[in-house]
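Good morning C.,

I know you're traveling, so I'll keep this short. The sequence:
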Amino acid sequence: MNPAPCFEMVCDMNAFLGAIIDGILYSAWLFIIAVGLTLIYGVMKILNMAHGTFYAIGAYMSVTLLGWWFAQGLPPAGSIPVMIVAALIAGTIVGLVVERGVLRFFTGRDPIVLLLVTYALFLILEDVVKLIWGVDPWIASDPVWTFGNVYLGPLVYPTYNLIIVVVAIVSGGFLTWFLQFTAKGKMLRAVIHDPEVSQAMGINVSRWKVSAFVAGSILAALGGAFTAPTISVAPGMGVEVVVMMFAAVVIGGLGSIPGTIVGALIVGFVRSLAVHYWPEVEVFSIYAVMAIVLAMRPQGLFSGVELRKI
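The tokens, ready to paste straight into the viewer:
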């Protein structure tokens, strides 16, 4: 009996299992970043081009605090709270500065104007990052090795990757709970659906817009903070996530959290399968899926038709 066919079958199964696991891990990472963009658009109707830079600032803040943490000889397990704190600091500061310092002056302007403004902010913040942290790469990989490895069948992954999945699940679960089952969440949903009526009912719409923008910024920074230990943090890293982030949001439907979950999963699995089986078309495959979805449903999978007020 020739064992070669059986061996090839096992290898093919392992490769497919690896593609599925990589797709899940990538989708979780992408969701953390993209859901912040979804929240901002849902409340403010701003397609924030600077969102990728918020992600980068969170990563830089994370490696900065992690470097200090490990330099003090503090427990490695404490690196997780440190990254959360880094995201809170970075997201809050950049969110408040951008919204209060710039975007509030463009309230009610044409969406194209807001898109151009956020693109200008993206370019400005990219240079600000270089001025603060320089152009050399920063590395803080200690958290990845701290938690060891986990065996998923025949494959070995850093346990840290599963922590990112947990962060994505907790972030999505918390947002869903807040919006669906709390009084303040219902107020925010009212602002999303009809800000004018909400204002007439006594809801401080401006305050909710600021809060939503800061929350979305924190989520972008959270994605960067937890990504930082797995990569070399360098200028331009925010640009790299923009395509995938917007693809997930557009496929799922602008302003829809369930849509963002599905969009992130679609992008994650398509990219993973392309990387494993046809790496030459990795980026093209994302554009192709996005084009197919928009051709059949221009508003995205989970977004209703937006009514225009006359």
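Safe travels,
E.
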